Amino acid sequence: MDRVTVQLTLRKRQAPTVPRVVSKGTWGTLGMGATLERASRCATREMIDWLEADRDMGWAEALTLLSLAGSLRVTQLVNGTVGTHLVFEPDGVD
Questions:
Q1: Cβ atoms of 75 and 84 closer than 8 Å
Q2: How far is residue 29's CA from residue 1's CA, in Å, rounded to a whole number?
Q3: How do residues 28-77 score in pLDDT, each as one tens digit?
Q4: Domains of the chain (ranges plus CATH)?
Q5: What is the C-alpha separation between 49 and 83, in angstroms, rounded?
Q6: Which of 5, 28, 34, 39 could serve as a FRET partner for 17 with CA atoms 20 to 30 Å apart?
C-alpha cells in the first residue's frame, strides 16, 4: 500500500468556503449542491477567488483563464448530494 502524507495549512486572512487541494502542482476546488449547476458554480467561484488572491487577477480574467485551462469534473451523484471539482495547473500558465 502506498503512503500518503497530508498537510493542513491554516490561513488566517483567507477564508475559503469549500476545501482547496494542492497536489503535484495542480490546484483543485470542490463544490457541492443540490444540482450539478450549483455544485459547478461553487467550485468555479472558489477557484476564481483563489486566482484573484494568489495571482492578482481580476474576476473576468480568472474566469477566462479557467474557461481555457480549467477542467470541471463530476465528483459525486449519489445520496441526493451532487459534487464537482475544478482542476487547474497554474504553473502551466504565465
A1: yes
A2: 27
A3: 999 999 999 999 999 999 999 999 988 889 999 999 999 999 999 999 88
A4: 20-92 (3.10.28.20)
A5: 19
A6: 5
